[in-house]
UniProtKB/TrEMBL annotation:
<dbReference type="InterPro" id="IPR036015">
    <property type="entry name" value="TBC1D8B_PH-GRAM2"/>
</dbReference>
<keyword id="KW-0963">Cytoplasm</keyword>
<comment type="subunit">
    <text>Interacts (via domain Rab-GAP TBC) with RAB11B (in GTP-bound form).</text>
</comment>
<dbReference type="InterPro" id="IPR000195">
    <property type="entry name" value="Rab-GAP-TBC_dom"/>
</dbReference>
<dbReference type="InterPro" id="IPR035969">
    <property type="entry name" value="Rab-GAP_TBC_sf"/>
</dbReference>
<dbReference type="GO" id="GO:0003094">
    <property type="term" value="P:glomerular filtration"/>
</dbReference>
<dbReference type="GO" id="GO:0005096">
    <property type="term" value="F:GTPase activator activity"/>
</dbReference>
<dbReference type="Pfam" id="PF00566">
    <property type="entry name" value="RabGAP-TBC"/>
</dbReference>
<feature type="region of interest" description="Disordered">
    <location>
        <begin position="1061"/>
        <end position="1093"/>
    </location>
</feature>
<dbReference type="InterPro" id="IPR004182">
    <property type="entry name" value="GRAM"/>
</dbReference>
<dbReference type="GO" id="GO:0005829">
    <property type="term" value="C:cytosol"/>
</dbReference>
<dbReference type="Pfam" id="PF02893">
    <property type="entry name" value="GRAM"/>
</dbReference>
<keyword id="KW-0677">Repeat</keyword>
<protein>
    <recommendedName>
        <fullName>TBC1 domain family member 8B</fullName>
    </recommendedName>
</protein>
<dbReference type="InterPro" id="IPR036012">
    <property type="entry name" value="TBC1D8B_PH-GRAM1"/>
</dbReference>
<dbReference type="InterPro" id="IPR011992">
    <property type="entry name" value="EF-hand-dom_pair"/>
</dbReference>
<feature type="domain" description="Rab-GAP TBC">
    <location>
        <begin position="487"/>
        <end position="674"/>
    </location>
</feature>
Length: 1146
């Protein structure tokens, strides 16, 4: 690699470097101790240690080239190399292209300037094709070279950054370098002859956390495949940890959770991932989550400043955050003050002429915001004016001292105007009023205590609107939160839900969108719509709104429209309950956008097939229980109890467990504080019932205690009619259980657990996401193991519960069909899955994992194509030493691909490996026989004869697809047959039973049913056998035996055909095969290759499998060869170590 010229004093370097070549202008040196016998002694060990620990050019490579200026002790380093071949190429290039030119210069200064300019030009040219960007510092280029040298990963592996740290091996810290790349965490250390090299793939990381103890003050703990690794002594540990967390989560999303993998242009191309890009992405995600902005927003600028708060008459210190469409402000204390200003609302942007460096932003509604002490405020004003198209306004009479008017404007007016088209187009179908106003209009004449309290709440909010403004740009303060905790008034609930959730921004940015989606989704019929129809009547069935067609139709439209908008989620149970409550207080279109906000931003990944988001938040909840309620953790032997009991809390925001009049107060807090409100309330509920839970003897008793508690939660201030309220009969004073008011419970949760920060929750979510997804994978695999044991004991015959039976059926396993041990199956499965992952690590056209269907049984979820199968065949097959191994891999793949989709799953793959290692002589021979007859066999013609029998990837994929194309309807029918639950509303248990019975009772294939092998196929079969015997200790004996068998078979066929047709003869081929009692391998193969053309004119002959089997059984050497045991364990270990190295740089 060419290096930016830097001065080197050769006098001090001679102790560390040895000169190998030199001329008048250049010197080639080798690092002392490199490639010397014994490592160069003590000096070599010390030099190697320095190379590993110190961050210098010396550590990068063992070879370097220096440019020497004549008559000077100063040298310039211009190139380095990881090996002799690389540095020799540089040296030869210098001799051929530079040396002759240098002789024309008169002065040494001109020579040096010319060499420096040429080397910089080479670096610039090299940078065009390098993953190291041109603006990267020189140290990064050096680190990149060492990363490539130490780990030898494929060229496409992108190094993101590197850090100096210590890796703890036992109780001993080893100083070295940690390299973070797109797919791997790598560590290298060399200390006094001891080398440590560690490579961990991100998708194998199940735990990533910052820890500390007596020995390690602060370290990063990485758990991968049951092994714990600790790294410490970082200069910036928080920055390092954040980057590791992002890379691990990126890999997890890409490999295991592609449903939530966003088509981000940066993440779609792993080569574009950079340290700065990942940091910016993390900041944008936190920015969007805090201010409830659309996911598409990207944080562009952050400015520290002061915001004038007029109603409090003080300047709040905080940060102004600017994205493409919003200007936001949050005080240093997040609860003190925050503001969101959409650029669509901005009328003018001005600056003051005084020393306050102020920026004044005027918006609709006669409101203005003054930001002071803004650095570079003039440039900021120019940028913002350009961004929003607002000019300096001379016609607005704005006082910078009182930047907010007392005249509040209802923001819903603007939204109403923007959605006029929507309402006109679908006024006949879409409700334009909240269901609560239709079914429970307020009676102004009848005022009771509850109604008066409701009016007092409304008055409190009106006062707040007067002070803080109303709408999306209102000031949000501690007073706002206090009012939310008390409960939002019924008349304002829909408006404030839209505001606090950010749904108001989505709706304003997409006028008419809902009407279009409703129209497009009307009449659609699919799995989602069928499930929606089934659940419509189960959504708040006791509420009058959903006992009428008005409410049911609105609910149907919203759910169907969302399923149409987001088919990846479609419809998930619990969405109907949540949407029902939204429709009570929000207009139909608003309810749709609220649902979008909940499903896509506030509760990410909750409503998909595996509810990963809910499981992640449950893991966060368990972590908070351990921190805040340790006595409960000590009492409960199994923390999974909290996960099982709280799942419905998270999925339905407590709506399914609390009475509706109390649940809506929880939803109020959720839209204001996000998931933090649900976590706090969950902790408060457990704390309130702590004594009862500690007294419980089992989980069932604890569940009963919690259910009894929920039944006694009331909302004494709810203005809802008693006929609608779901709580216990309020007048029942004989109840022995103490009633709890929801407002008091929420207030207590804020007082006790309000110190939980949103940033901490975000970090815990990221950390636990790794654990949850890896645990899901491992748990499913463990369940498969257990089910397999039950199946082997005929447990399924005793199962009466249909749901459990369905689980058993879906977890069909291969252990009942193969002789491989469970440990061998585990090892084989890891290799199988890693091969699939590796093939997508560096695939730029398809960065997201394909051929993975979580709806299938676990061992059938992952599928590989022919190219991936060939790699595994070379690593694992005992027949992989054959000269035509690529052809054998191709035919084996075609044999296993029974459904002709050009993919095979692990179940099919393991069955082939099992036969190769554990099959009997007859089973192995039958597989080889079937490989040489259709549909597995296809004649392979090589495009490039110079490569021998090696097939290119394109050739392999082409031949794997020959004669397998089927009509789409036929493929769908086969798919439905193979997976009865796929594409149907309900799983047909009878179909599963029938399919499983067919598999279990399937008779062994009768060898008489196998088709006969024709002439050309038999010739190829014979050549394959010769190739398999090559290199065996009994090679000559085996060759002679197969020659005898071939001769015998041909004579048998000749006799048979003479009986039917005396004129026919196979003398030519028979004589060639049996001459001299058995030919050599070369003679036989050459004759077999020549004979087919001459025999095509003669009548074709063929062999049955029984004939070949009987003939081979007569040769003990052949039987011994196929029946000798092969060590699969050693093969698996070798495959695991070779799997990655087979892809490394050559």
């Amino acid at each position: 690699m060419w290096l930016k010229p830097e001065e080197v004093l050769l006098k001090n370097a001679l102790k560390l470097w040895l000169m190998e070549r030199s001329n008048d202008y250049f010197v080639l040196q080798r690092r002392r101790g490199y490639r010397e016998e014994g490592g160069g002694g003590l000096t070599g060990l010390l030099v190697g240690t320095l190379d590993s620990v110190l961050d210098s050019t010396a550590k990068v490579a063992p070879f370097r080239i220096l440019h020497q200026t004549p008559d000077s002790q100063v040298y310039l380093s211009i190139a380095c190399g990881a090996n002799r071949e690389e540095i020799t190429k540089h040296w030869e290039w210098l001799e051929q292209n530079i040396m002759k030119t240098l002789s024309v210069f008169d002065s040494n200064e001109d020579i040096t300037n010319f060499v420096q300019g040429k080397i910089r030009g080479l670096i610039a040219e090299e940078g065009k094709h390098s993953f190291a960007k041109e603006d990267d510092p020189e140290k990064f280029r050096e680190a990149l070279l060492k990363f490539e040298k130490c780990f030898g990963l494929p060229e496409q592996e992108k190094l993101v950054t590197y850090y100096s740290c210590s890796y703890w091996k036992g109780r001993v810290p080893c100083q070295g370098w940690l390299y973070l790349s797109t797919n791997f965490l790598s560590f290298y250390s060399f200390l006094l002859g001891s080398e440590i090299k560690l490579i961990i793939s991100w998708d194998a990381v199940s735990k990533l956390e910052k820890t500390s103890n007596v020995i390690l003050t602060e370290s990063i703990h990485v758990c991968s495949q049951g092994e714990n690794h600790y790294f410490s002594m970082f200069l910036h540990i928080n920055q390092t940890y954040l980057l590791m967390e992002q890379l691990a989560n990126y890999a997890i999303k890409r490999i295991f959770d592609k449903e939530t993998f966003d088509n981000d242009p940066i993440l779609d191309d792993p080569l574009q991932i950079t340290k700065r890009g990942l940091e910016n992405r993390a900041h944008s995600e936190q920015f969007n989550a805090f201010f409830r902005l659309p996911k598409e927003e990207t944080l562009k600028e952050v400015h520290e400043c002061f915001l004038w708060v007029p109603f409090s008459h003080f300047n709040a210190h905080g940060k102004m955050c600017i994205s493409e469409n919003y200007i936001c402000f949050a005080s240093q204390d997040g609860n003190l003050c925050s503001v969101i200003i959409p650029l669509r609302e901005v009328l003018a942007i001005d600056k003051t002429n005084d020393s306050s460096k102020s920026v004044i932003i005027s918006i609709k509604g006669k409101t203005a915001f003054r930001f002071s002490e803004v650095k570079e405020f003039e440039q900021l004003v120019a940028k913002l004016r350009l961004k929003c198209g607002a000019a300096s306004t001379q016609y607005h009479d704005i006082s910078t001292e009182v930047p907010i008017s007392s005249e509040s404007v209802d923001p819903s007016d603007d939204i109403e105007v923007q959605s006029l088209i929507c309402q006109k187009e679908c006024s006949k179908t879409v409700n334009t009023e909240a269901l609560m106003t239709v079914f429970h209009p307020q009676d102004l004449e009848t005022l009771n205590s509850k109604t008066l309290k409701e009016k007092m709440k409304e008055q409190s909010w009106n006062i707040l609107f007067t002070e803080c403004g109303r709408g999306v740009s209102m000031f949000r303060t501690k007073k706002t939160q206090d009012l939310v905790v008390r409960g939002i008034p019924e008349t304002l609930r829909g408006e404030l839900w839209m505001l606090f959730s950010g749904a108001v921004n989505d709706m304003a940015a997409n006028p008419g969108y809902y009407a279009e989606v409703v129209e497009q989704s009307l009449g659609t019929c699919n799995l989602a719509t069928e499930e929606i129809e089934r659940d419509l009547r189960r959504s708040l069935p006791e509420h009058p709104a959903f006992q009428s067609d008005t409410g049911i139709s609105a609910l149907r439209r919203v759910l169907t429209a969302y399923a149409f908008r987001n088919p990846k989620i479609g419809y998930c149970q619990a969405m109907n309950i949540l949407t029902s409550v939204l429709l009570l207080y929000a207009k139909e279109e608003e309810a749709f956008w609220l649902l979008v906000a909940v499903c896509e931003r506030m509760l990410p990944d909750y409503f998909n097939r595996r509810i990963i988001g809910a499981l992640v938040d449950q893991a966060v909840f368990e972590e908070l229980i351990r921190d805040h309620l340790p006595q409960l953790t000590e009492h409960m032997t199994d923390m999974t109890f909290f996960s099982s009991v709280s799942l419905s809390w998270f999925l339905t925001l407590f709506i399914s467990v609390l009475p509706i009049e109390s649940a809506v107060n929880v939803v109020d807090c959720f839209f204001y504080d996000g998931i933090k409100a649900i976590l706090q309330l969950g902790l408060a509920i457990l704390d309130y019932n702590l004594d009862k839970l500690l007294a419980c003897k089992d989980d069932a008793e604890a569940v009963t205690a919690l259910n009894r508690f929920f039944d006694n939660v009331t909302n004494k201030d709810s203005p809802l009619p008693s006929s609608v309220q779901q709580g216990s009969n309020v007048s029942d004073e004989k109840s022995s259980h103490i009633r709890v008011d929801i407002t008091d419970l929420i207030r207590e949760s804020n007082e006790k657990y309000g110190n939980i920060r949103c940033e901490d929750i975000y970090s815990m979510r990221c950390r636990n996401r790794l654990y949850v997804i890896q645990t899901l994978e491992e748990t499913t695999k463990q369940n498969v193991r257990e089910i397999s044991k039950w199946i082997q004991r005929d447990f399924y015959a005793e199962v009466l519960n249909s749901k459990l039976l369905l689980i058993l059926l879906k977890l069909r396993v291969v252990s009942q069909d193969v002789k491989l041990s469970l440990h061998e199956l585990d090892e084989l499965y890891v290799i199988f899955k890693r091969e699939l992952f590796f093939s997508y690590y560096w695939c730029l056209r398809a960065p997201v994992l394909k051929h993975h269907d979580p709806s299938l049984p676990y061992l059938e979820q992952y599928q590989i194509d022919c190219q991936q199968f060939r790699v595994l065949y070379h690593l694992l097959s005992p027949w992989a030493h054959s000269a035509n191994r690529d052809s054998l891999a191709l035919w084996t793949f075609r044999l296993l691909d029974e459904n002709s989709d050009c993919l095979i799953n692990f179940k099919e793959f393991s069955s082939a490996i099992d036969i190769m290692y554990n099959g009997s002589f007859t089973e192995k021979l039958k597989v080889l026989f079937k490989l040489h007859i259709p549909p597995a066999y296809t004649e392979v013609k090589y495009k490039d004869p110079s490569k021998g029998d090696e097939l290119s990837k394109e050739e392999l994929l082409y031949f794997s697809q020959l004669h397998v194309s089927k009509p789409a309807k036929e493929k769908e029918a086969e798919s439905a047959k193979n997976s009865p639950e796929k594409g149907k509303e309900k799983v047909d248990i009878q179909a599963y039973l029938s399919q499983w019975q067919d598999e279990l009772l399937k008779k062994e294939e009768n060898i008489k049913d196998l088709p006969r092998m024709n002439q050309s196929q038999f010739i190829q079969f014979s050549k394959t056998l010769y190739n398999l015997f090559h290199g065996d200790p009994e090679e000559e004996l085996l060759y002679q035996a197969i020659a005898v068998v071939t001769s015998l078979l041909l004579r048998m066929e000749e006799v048979g055909r003479k009986l039917h047709n005396p004129a026919s003869s196979t003398k030519g081929l028979s004589g060639a095969v049996c001459a001299s009692g058995g030919p050599s391998e070369g003679q036989t193969e050459s004759h077999l290759e020549k004979d087919p053309s001459s025999l095509r004119e003669e009548p074709q002959w063929s062999f049955a499998f029984e004939q070949i089997l009987a003939s081979l059984l007569n040769e003990p050497a052949l039987v011994k060869f196929f029946e000798k045991p092969i060590d699969l364990k050693a093969k698996l270990e070798n495959a695991k170590t070779s799997q990655l190295s087979s892809r490394t740089r050559k």
